[in-house]
Write a structure and sequence with these properties.
four-stranded parallel sheet, Ubiquitin-like (UB roll), six-stranded mixed sheet, 361 residues, 3 domains, 22% strand, single chain, 8 helices
Length: 361
């Protein structure tokens, strides 16, 4: 197989920007910025930060050879001294098999859910604590999650932008599933693919994320961001506690999988949603007829919206640029921005200050 299309570190960072790569979870921070100033250690975050998440592990198992290629390439390009895949102790048996077959270095953190995954992983790998509001880079660590690194593989080896999204869809669904869908897919359309009677959507509660740190979303309006890792569907009548009940309280340790968490989930009727182990990714890209592409996929104000380069009525092809990064978006942390691309073939139906709508024709 051909190697990466460039091995120049600065060109690779530019490529990540121009291919629209952001953190495929968490805050959706532009990935290129972390790689402008390489650190000695790269940690691959396979923590699956919400109870019931299985997508990152499945992606890693499905595309193991591709992950080996991109990790080897990144190690050579950015001169990482170590690359470590970090995960929870509860997944050790499953992931150790990949370590043995492909030579990955693994590290495991406690099976704990809550804010601070990168801190736990950094401590597990380096033994060092991240102080205050410092980032992992302060102790010589870069952290990228599994799907982000798969998008880097597609950019480096196939010159392909971020136009697809892998996510967990579970809860009140016919069958919990890891989907591959176009970025911008309307969640109600994806729920149809998951076997939900969407005429009942006013009886359902949709959480963008999982039960610990997810955000409530409008079933009829919500569309997938590049950072959307999962959709948890629950019945409003059964969801009897505010989300804050799941969050870590000041001065208290977050719940562990083995102890507190199952009891909390069982009490709220959610435990049944968490016991699934998918073995295939369900590809619905051909079934999606429309998308809403947001010009900004991050939750931090320092990331600026992409600038549309299309107008209503324009025909577009999947993978075509529809919004460019703002000028100067590479070195200046005050001007972080990435490109945005069409995730299906179709026509531009609407362009606003916040999104672009495409319709398949």
């Amino acid at each position: 197989m051909a190697g990466p299309i460039t091995t120049n570190p600065k060109e690779v960072a530019h490529l990540f920007r121009d291919m629209g790569i952001v953190g495929a979870g968490g805050a959706g921070f532009p990935a290129y910025f972390k790689y402008l100033r390489p650190t000695p250690i790269l940690i691959v975050n396979c923590e699956e930060g919400e109870p019931g998440y299985e997508g990152d592990k499945l992606l890693l198992r499905t595309y193991t050879d591709q992950f080996k290629e991109v990790l080897d390439a990144l190690k050579s390009i950015f001169k990482f001294q170590r690359i470590v895949i970090g995960a929870k102790e509860k997944d050790k048996e499953m992931l150790d098999a990949l370590s043995k077959s492909h030579g990955f270095e693994m590290a495991y953190s406690p099976s704990t859910y809550g804010y601070g995954e990168e801190r736990w992983l950094t401590k597990a790998v380096t033994g060092k604590e991240i102080q205050g509001r410092d980032l992992p880079a302060s102790v010589g660590v870069t952290v990228s999650n599994v799907e982000t690194l798969y998008n880097m593989y597609l950019a480096l080896f196939r010159n392909k932008p971020v136009i697809d999204k892998y996510l967990n869809v579970y809860g009140e669904v016919t069958k919990p599933t890891v989907f591959c869908a176009p970025v911008g897919t309307f969640s109600i359309d994806l729920l149809c693919q998951a076997g939900i009677d969407t005429s009942r959507h006013h009886h359902l509660m949709l959480i963008d994320g999982g039960p610990m740190m997810g955000d409530l979303a409008d079933v009829s309006l919500h569309a997938l961001l590049k950072k959307t890792n999962g959709l948890l569907v629950v019945d409003k009548a059964k969801y009897v506690a505010d989300q804050v009940a799941f969050k870590e309280l000041p001065g208290q340790a977050p719940p562990t999988w083995e102890d507190t968490l199952p009891r909390i989930m069982e009490k709220l009727g959610l435990l049944k949603y968490l016991k699934w182990h998918p073995d295939t990714i369900h590809d619905v890209r051909d079934q999606i007829e429309r998308v809403r592409l947001y010009l900004n996929h991050a939750i931090t104000p320092i990331v600026k919206s992409s600038i549309p380069v299309v107008r209503a009525g324009d025909k577009v092809k999947r993978g075509q640029l529809v919004a460019k990064p703002i000028d100067g978006a590479i070195e200046d942390i005050k001007t972080l921005s990435v490109a945005l691309h069409a995730s299906l073939d179709g026509v531009v139906k609407e362009v606003t200050d916040t999104y672009i709508v495409l319709q398949k024709v």
